[in-house]
Design brief:
With about 375 residues, the protein is α/β, with parallel strands linked by helices. The chain contains 13 helices and 14 strands.
């Protein structure tokens, strides 16, 4: 298959081909993929397939630059998300709910995302996708008429891909870098709650175990170092590709705080002019939450509001953030220092899963006991590059 171009437009003559005889794992139904489109499609599809099989619910993810901006399984869509997308939260179908919850984790980053869902796309999800800025989707099938609906998006350039959920990948995988071919055994460890059996402190309720299990599936396909915060079957903040794990923890924690503060009455009370687009509303909400607007930004924000912005003081922020609890936290590698636990605690974390095995694992455990956080050691590192 010829690709539109490589990683960058100047890298032409990009192609893809199966590494073993037999059926392709995916096929293109609409559009022309680029090199990065293929990476997003293949990684995101594996994520939702594993998450759905582990948790027995439809799963979805919103991918950007070969890492998930958000991921979720089917579940309740809250008023904030429903209002943002102009839907009735009580009537949303399971698959659409999974994608809405995944996209709502970090809606700023999900702008122009690549979507993946674990079940065939239905008419409801196809209609939703026509109203959001999204570059493509991969799914194991499409209900009649949905490909035609999606093919009208982006003047026919919206990418529609179908995955073969029966496909079994080769036992070994390889990549070529600067004239060398690197080959390794495929990481095929099955993700299950058995990985969370070694709870060294605290108690792990079933709902928390499910969140941690979803987190393991998410981080398996997130550029390392990576961590994620989750609650209620959805990610709240994902930190990817940082050289320092604690920087990853702080980055994802800040996204988690933003997710929660978007539910604050003062943020919900921002009265935007009718012509202001959804993504612009999201971006202004986040800048309002961050609170460090420049004079120019303050002036521009006043022009998109029909009424003055309400007050959101540091004290109000602190009081509101204290209400975020029972958050799960997963790390793809061992926590090397207790500072990760200290920072995670600031964002409502009550449960942590990490491989263990660090020379300071006892200090990590002590920190969890100090903050009354349940700690599960998986013994499984999930680096992804």
């Amino acid at each position: 298959m010829d690709l539109r171009y490589g990683t960058n437009p100047q890298q032409q003559a990009a192609t893809t081909a199966p590494v073993q005889p037999g059926p392709w794992p995916v096929r293109v139904l609409q559009g022309s993929p680029s090199y990065i489109n293929m990476l997003d499609a293949l990684n995101s599809w594996q994520l939702v397939l594993e998450a759905s099989r582990a948790l027995h619910r439809p799963a979805a993810t919103s991918f950007k630059h070969v890492s998930p901006a958000g991921a979720a399984v089917a579940g309740p869509v809250d008023d904030v998300t429903a209002e943002l997308y102009g839907i009735g939260h009580a009537s949303v179908g399971a698959l659409t709910s999974a994608y809405l919850r995944a996209r709502d984790a970090d809606p700023k980053s999900s702008y122009g995302d690549f979507a993946a869902v674990s079940h065939p796309v239905d008419a409801e999800l196809a209609e939703l996708l026509t109203s959001v800025v999204c570059d493509g989707i991969i799914a194991p099938g499409y209900a009649p008429g949905t490909v035609a609906t999606l093919s009208k998006k982006k003047n026919g350039r919206f990418l529609v891909m179908e995955a073969d959920e029966t496909y079994t990948p080769p036992q070994h995988e390889a990549r070529e870098v600067f004239g060398l071919r690197l080959t390794q055994q495929r990481d095929d460890v099955t993700l299950s709650t058995a990985l969370l059996d070694d709870v060294v402190c605290g108690t792990l309720p079933a709902t928390a175990a499910e969140d941690l299990l979803l987190g393991l599936a998410v981080l398996r396909y997130t550029q390392s170092n990576s961590v994620c915060y989750l609650r209620g079957g959805a990610t709240l903040g994902i930190g990817a590709g940082q050289q320092s794990r604690v920087d990853c923890t702080r980055l994802a924690g800040a996204k988690t705080d933003t997710w929660w503060l978007r539910r604050h009455p003062a943020v919900r009370a921002l009265a935007f002019q009718p012509h202001v687009r959804r993504q612009d509303r999201i971006n202004w909400q986040i800048r309002f939450i961050e609170g460090d607007l420049t004079p120019d930004e303050s002036t521009r924000m006043s022009t998109v509001l029909s009424a003055p912005a309400p007050e959101l003081t540091d004290k109000q922020r602190t009081q509101w953030l204290a209400g975020l609890t029972q958050v799960a936290f997963v790390s793809d590698g061992a926590l090397p220092f207790r500072d990760n636990v200290d920072h995670a605690h600031r964002h409502g974390v009550g449960y942590i899963a990490e491989p263990g095995g660090s020379i300071r694992s006892s200090e990590v455990e002590d920190a969890c006991r100090e903050h009354q956080i349940a700690l599960a050691r998986t013994g499984l590192r999930l680096f992804h590059h």
